[in-house]
């Protein structure tokens, strides 16, 4: 693997890992610092964020309280329904089944992800947090595989998943989130968009 390819894979892995961390955990000084550090490192301009205590309610409003002003379902099957029919799809369905098959094919278990109890309890296979963690996992496989064939396979699978899954719904979800105003979580979504683009 040449140096440029390695750097791109490393950057994508770190960006997506930090996004998964921010989505799986309630706001904390560490979460905000990690997001800011990675955003600065890739040249992404973020807004000014309130203290973690002030962001806690927004975390719930964005991801865990359906029907509220700030809520956008951050999972693929729901967003795919919106893109196809103009209204959110079910929490699980054909798209989440496809994602789960991708996970099983490489031995990734999204149920082993850790974080805030409420976020972990709400996880479905195609949630944004799980998909970020999975794509980061593939990029780590690309970096750590012992031989060229395995590295190429991991790179190909990451590109395919980014193109056929996250690349289709993440940016539209971010735009929907922006309708209720920019905040820490729209910045996290933009960071995830950049991580996915590095895989395509």
State the major sheet: none
Order of helices and strands: HHHHHHHHH
- Could you say what the CATH topology is called? TorD-like
Hey, roughly how much beta strand do the residues contain?
under 5%
Oligomerization state:
single chain
Morphology call? globular
Helix content: 55-70%
CATH architecture assignment: Orthogonal Bundle
The pLDDT mean sits at 95
Structural class: mainly alpha
Using the CA coordinates, give the radius of gyration: 16 Å
- What is the total number of structural domains? 1
- Spatial separation of the terminal alpha carbons: 17 Å
Query: Which spans have pLDDT < 50 for at least 5 consecutive residues?
Result: none
Give the count of helical stretches. 9
- Tell how many strands the DSSP assignment holds: 0
Can you walk me through this structure?
The protein has 200 residues and is an all-alpha fold. The chain has one domain: Orthogonal Bundle (TorD-like), CATH 1.10.3480. The chain is 69% helix and 0% strand. The chain has 9 helices and no strands. Helix 1 packs antiparallel against helix 7, helix 1 packs antiparallel against helix 9 and helix 4 packs across helix 8. The longest helix has 31 residues. It is globular and about 50 Å long. The mean pLDDT is 95.
Please specify the SSE layout and strand pairing.
Blueprint: H1 3-24, H2 29-41, H3 52-63, H4 76-85, H5 94-106, H6 117-122, H7 128-144, H8 148-178, H9 184-197
């Amino acid at each position: 693997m040449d140096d440029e390819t390695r750097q791109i894979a490393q950057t994508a892995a770190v960006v997506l890992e930090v996004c998964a961390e921010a989505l799986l955990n309630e706001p904390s000084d560490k979460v905000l610092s990690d997001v800011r550090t990675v955003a600065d490192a890739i040249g992404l301009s973020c807004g000014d964020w309130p203290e973690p205590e002030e962001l806690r309610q927004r975390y719930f409003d964005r991801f865990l309280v359906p029907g509220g002003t700030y809520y956008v379902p951050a999972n693929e099957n729901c967003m795919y329904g919106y893109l196809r029919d103009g209204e959110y799809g079910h929490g699980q369905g054909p798209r989440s089944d496809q994602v789960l098959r991708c996970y099983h094919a490489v031995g990734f278990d999204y149920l082993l992800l850790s974080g805030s109890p409420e976020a972990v309890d709400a996880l479905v296979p195609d949630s944004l947090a799980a998909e970020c963690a999975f794509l980061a996992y593939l990029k780590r496989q690309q970096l750590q595989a012992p031989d060229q064939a395995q590295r190429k396979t991991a790179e190909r699978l990451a590109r395919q998943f980014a193109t056929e899954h996250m690349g289709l719904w993440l940016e539209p979800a971010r735009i929907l989130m922006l309708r209720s105003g920019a905040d820490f979580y729209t910045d996290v979504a933009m960071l995830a968009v950049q991580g996915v683009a590095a895989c395509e």
